[in-house]
Amino acid sequence: MFNFFKSKIGADNKDEIRKSNKPKGHVFVCTTEREEGTHPCGGCGGQGGTEILDEFIFEINERNLFDEVVVSGMECPGPCSLGPNILVYPGGVMYSQVQKSDVKKIIESHLLDSNAEKYIMNDKALTELIYWVTGKKL
Q: Comparing C-alpha atoms, which of 124, 106, 125 is closest to residue 116?
C-alpha cells in the first residue's frame, strides 16, 4: 500500500544526498505574541518580530536561497526586554533589538559570508554571548 512513498534512492546514496540537502543556514525569528499585561516585556511579535520574519522570507526569496537557508518563526528564546530577537546558524548567534532594516545586513554578513563562522569564533564577546544563550562553549 505504501510502495508509492518508498524512496527510489539506493542505500549507498542516502548519506550523500542527506549531506547535500543540509541547509547552510537557519534563521529563527521570535514571533511570540502575548496579551497586554500578561508579561512585563510583551513579546517580540508585537515589537516587530512578525514583520522581521516576513522580511527574512522576502529577502531569502529575492536571493533564491530557499535551498540554502531555512527561515522559521519560534517561540520566546528570551531575553524579552531586548526583543525582537532572532537566532542564526551557523554559529548559534542571537541578535537582539533587530529591525527590518537589519535583515539584509544579517543575510549578507552572517549567512552569505563564508568567513562569518570564523569571525564569530574569534570574537570573545560573541562567544560569551553564545555561551550565555546556548550553554555551549566554542
A: 106
